[in-house]
Amino acid sequence: MVLGMALFRDEPVHEVARRLNICAQGLASDQLLARSGVTEARKRLGADPVDSLFRQTGKQWGCERYEGDDWNVLQVFAVDGALLRTPDSPELREHFGSGNTGTERQTPFPMLRLVALMNVRSHVILDAQHSPYRGSEMRLAETFAGQIPDNSTTLFEGFWGQTCC
């Protein structure tokens, strides 16, 4: 379904499901596939299938080597972090937290910290980790140590004077 959504990105999700013939009762049709059915099925599955697909494809595609991709015979990777705003809800604010402003108020939206390991040449993300706003980028980056392949160099953006991995 995730790949179908990428291939048919201009189509509504229920139309992608119909085109892929995804239906528990046989052939997908307007009579068998309600518009809300895909949303409800996605809620039942949760994030685990998408997380698994992301990690498997990142691991495979992120380390592939192509002619001209290397720098001095080394594959080049980078680790960088970002802060992302989430929708404002009490649950998300409680879980992720928020930053402080100059007036000592909370930022308008809860914020999460994201750190990603990327192949610099192909731009494929091998892995990504997230944490609440107050989490450490350095701690998140440490989880990538075992995933960086041999014969490579890794750039750490924003980790001045720190030793990692």
Outline the structure in words.
- The protein has 165 residues and is of the alpha+beta class.
- The protein folds into two domains: 2-46, no CATH class; 67-156, no CATH class.
- The protein is built from six helices and four strands; from the N terminus they run H-H-H-H-E-H-E-E-H-E.
- It has a four-stranded mixed sheet.
- Helix 2 crosses helix 3 (35-45).
- The model has no long low-confidence stretch (mean pLDDT 80).
**Number of domain units:** 2
Provide the β-strand percentage band. Answer: 15-25%
| Structural class label | alpha+beta
DSSP summary, beta strand count:
4
> Fraction of residues in helices?
25-40%
Spatial strand sequence of the major β-sheet: 3-2-1-4
Main beta-sheet annotation: 4 strands, mixed
| Rg over C-alpha atoms, rounded to the nearest angstrom | 20 Å
Low-pLDDT parts are none
* C-alpha termini separation: 36 Å
Report the principal-axis shape.
flat
- Give the helix tally: 6
